[in-house]
Design goal:
single chain, alpha/beta, Barwin-like endoglucanases, six-stranded mixed β-sheet, 5 helices
Length: about 130
């Protein structure tokens, strides 16, 4: 069972600290995740560390669920990076930066694996 949410993305300290080594486990653990409220976790039957699929009109991606602090119900956050890029538009509308806030999304618990960065890039190549 899925939940309709608004997706936001942005920079985090952990994401920024690992920009120099995007193939590292540290980078993967810092950005291949989705922070969500307790209410949204309960709604989809997920616990921290479970895999969740995030789907928007731009694509879908599987990431790890993380208990967010201070997020209201219906708002989920994926740090900027390849996993967030999979579910956001590349259209910058002349601003040089795509829209990373307020994207309509659906989220659900899944048994599908979280792809590592190389696997994720190969999926982009196939599209």
């Amino acid at each position: 069972m899925g939940a309709k949410v608004k997706l936001i993305s942005g920079r985090t300290v952990a994401q920024g600290q690992n920009l120099d080594n995007k193939l590292s486990d540290e980078y993967f653990n810092a950005v291949a995740l989705c922070e969500l409220s307790t209410e949204d976790m309960e709604k989809i039957g997920a616990s921290p560390g479970d895999n969740v699929k995030v789907r928007t009109k731009y694509g879908e991606v599987v990431v790890k669920a993380k208990q967010g602090t201070g997020y209201p119900e219906g708002i989920v956050f994926i740090p900027m990076g390849p996993w967030a890029n999979a579910v956001t538009s590349g259209d910058t509308r002349g601003a040089g930066m795509p829209q990373f806030k307020g994207i309509d999304a659906e989220i659900e618990k899944t048994d599908e694996p979280v792809l590592n960065i190389k696997e994720l890039m190969m999926r982009y190549k196939e599209v």
